[in-house]
């Protein structure tokens, strides 16, 4: 087996002539950095009450502590991915890591809510810049069975970071004897980031595309308007009201249409666009993007609603609520490398089974909350959720890494960063919309006085989103006739000498 660590050359039959001997060490550095940035999406949630008390932050300001990070994270992904393609993923990765670290320090030292919000925006910018480089590096450095293992580890990191966030936050806030222990939620990033930067500077190869070019600024602005309005509208829906939300989404739709038209004109003029026209038509990529967006829409909302129920309705502490969800994280971490070893042979059938497990697991959680816990006592809810969360977590770990792997399998290596940015942007948008919808359902029913029913209906909404992802995956497999869609082409690369017309996804 030959591993590719650079864009493939036309003289090697689609494979790179050199293999980076440090690729596994590079992967570890990338995953550590990615873990931090994804952890900061969820870890801050359990710290919000302490932040409100320590800084005197209002409810609206607390919302922006969460929203500011998430929105800017999503806005930066596609432009940053293309910058990595053009100017070298090492440079862009390290630059994003520096921004994230400085933002973390500013968050930990923030004297007032306004400074904290600004620092979270800065932190989110760094996270959005470095994350597309991670999947692009994996896509470029690994081939064959190693590729599945590498994406398996990536999937484990995504599942762990999302599920462990509330637990780690609860540990820091509950067990550290400091009145402002919430600051550690951000400051804990500093030593880890310093080590990651030093190792990344030493180990990551400074590879870049032959197509060094200026950034597509018009496309960047149009895409920023589109993604920003969608994420802002769904996350600030209460403050905006229904009329402004609809207006924002209509403007986002118009901006998205203008972005696609501009990218076509920009590419036709011989320039390098943010996303090549036709990228979503690359075999396996469009369905994979849709599966990822729908799945993350249901997946992220699980932890928000369960944490609220356990803390507000059952009186669990932040630490206890985090511990309740640890079986999910452990099962996801165990399943991801297991799935990574099997994705080349089983392809999207593996993802279908994982999605089915998540749906069944969520239905079992609803059964525990509605039927079992009332019979034996709500105090046992945390223990009763262990088995359903193990199943749900294992299914999640079977979905995340393999879906990224298969979705990027037919992407030209020179477009790996751009495609990774597009892929993750759909995940961010799916997460934002799913969380907005599911949390709105939960809070609306809970305000009526029945938190148990609220959790059940909210988890049902999450299950429907995952079920929709399952339907997309099944339809894709039923209509699939190309080897690139079932994992068997994950070992190939595109010839470096191929023209635009020969690239997968070229429009």
What's the arrangement of secondary structure elements?
Blueprint: H1 23-42, H2 48-55, H3 59-87, H4 89-109, H5 113-141, H6 144-175, H7 184-187, H8 189-203, H9 217-235, H10 237-268, H11 285-313, H12 318-324, H13 326-346, H14 348-376, H15 381-384, H16 386-407, H17 416-447, H18 451-478
Helix pairs in contact: 1-5, 1-6, 1-8, 3-4, 3-5, 3-9, 3-17, 4-5, 4-8, 5-6, 5-17, 6-12, 6-13, 6-16, 9-10, 9-17, 11-16, 11-17, 11-18, 13-16, 14-16, 14-18, 17-18
Q: What is the level-2 CATH architecture name of the largest domain?
A: Up-down Bundle
Q: What percentage of residues falls in helices of 4 or more residues? A: over 70%
Structural class: mainly alpha
Question: How widely separated are the two ends?
Answer: 32 Å
Structure annotation, total helices: 18
The amount of beta strand, in percent, is under 5%
Major sheet characteristics: none
User: Compute the gyration radius: what is it?
Assistant: 22 Å
Average pLDDT number: 84
CATH superfamily of the largest domain: MFS general substrate transporter like domains
Structure summary, number of beta strands: 0
H and E order: HHHHHHHHHHHHHHHHHH
Number of domains: 2
User: Oligomerization state of this entry?
Assistant: single chain
- Dominant shape: globular
Unreliable stretches (pLDDT < 50, length at least 5) are 1-17, 481-507
CATH class of the largest domain: Mainly Alpha
**In the CATH scheme, what's the topology name of the largest domain?**
Growth Hormone, Chain: A
């Amino acid at each position: 087996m030959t591993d590719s660590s650079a864009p493939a050359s036309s003289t090697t039959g689609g494979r790179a002539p050199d293999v980076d001997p440090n690729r596994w060490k590079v992967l570890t550095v990338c995953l550590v950095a990615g873990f931090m940035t994804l952890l900061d999406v969820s870890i801050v949630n359990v710290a919000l009450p302490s932040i409100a008390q320590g800084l005197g932050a209002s409810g609206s300001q607390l919302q922006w502590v969460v929203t500011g990070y998430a929105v800017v994270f999503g806005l930066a992904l596609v432009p940053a991915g293309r910058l990595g393609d053009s100017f070298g993923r090492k440079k862009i990765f390290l630059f994003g890591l520096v921004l994230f670290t400085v933002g973390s320090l500013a968050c930990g030292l923030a004297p007032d809510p306004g400074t904290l919000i600004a620092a979270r925006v800065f932190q989110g910018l760094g996270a959005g810049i470095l994350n597309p480089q991670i999947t692009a590096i994996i896509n470029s450095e690994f081939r064959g069975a190693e590729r599945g293992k590498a994406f398996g580890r990536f999937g484990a990191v995504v599942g762990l970071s999302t599920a462990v966030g509330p637990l780690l936050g609860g540990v820091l806030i509950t067990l550290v004897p400091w009145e402002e222990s919430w600051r550690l939620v951000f400051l804990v990033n500093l030593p880890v980031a310093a080590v990651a930067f030093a190792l990344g500077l030493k180990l990551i190869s400074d590879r870049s595309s032959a197509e060094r070019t200026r950034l597509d600024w018009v496309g960047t602005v149009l895409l920023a308007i589109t993604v920003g309005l969608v994420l802002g509208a769904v996350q600030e829906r209460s403050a905006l009201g229904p009329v402004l939300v609809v207006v924002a989404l209509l403007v986002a739709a118009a901006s998205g249409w203008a972005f696609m038209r501009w990218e076509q004109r920009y590419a036709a003029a011989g320039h390098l666009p943010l996303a090549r026209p036709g990228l979503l038509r690359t075999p396996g990529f469009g369905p994979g993007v849709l599966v990822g967006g729908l799945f993350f829409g249901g997946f992220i909302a699980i932890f928000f609603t369960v944490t609220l129920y356990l803390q507000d309705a059952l009186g669990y502490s932040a630490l206890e609520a985090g511990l309740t969800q640890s079986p999910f994280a452990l099962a996801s971490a165990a399943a991801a490398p297991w799935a990574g070893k099997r994705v080349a042979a089983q392809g999207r059938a593996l993802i279908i089974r994982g999605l089915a497990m998540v749906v069944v697991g969520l239905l079992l959680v609803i059964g525990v909350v509605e039927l079992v816990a009332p019979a034996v006592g709500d105090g046992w809810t945390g223990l009763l959720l262990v088995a359903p969360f193990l199943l749900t977590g294992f299914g999640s770990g079977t979905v995340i890494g393999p879906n990224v792997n298969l979705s990027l399998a037919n992407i030209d290596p020179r477009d790996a960063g751009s495609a990774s940015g597009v892929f993750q942007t759909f995940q961010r948008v799916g997460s934002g919309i799913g969380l907005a919808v599911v949390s709105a359902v939960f809070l609306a029913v809970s305000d009526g006085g029945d938190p148990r029913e609220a959790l059940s209906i909210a988890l049902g909404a999450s299950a429907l989103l995952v079920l929709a992802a399952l339907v997309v995956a099944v339809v894709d497999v039923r209509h699939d006739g190309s080897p690139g869609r079932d994992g068997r082409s994950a070992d190939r690369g595109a010839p470096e000498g191929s023209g635009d017309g020969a690239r997968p996804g070229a429009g």
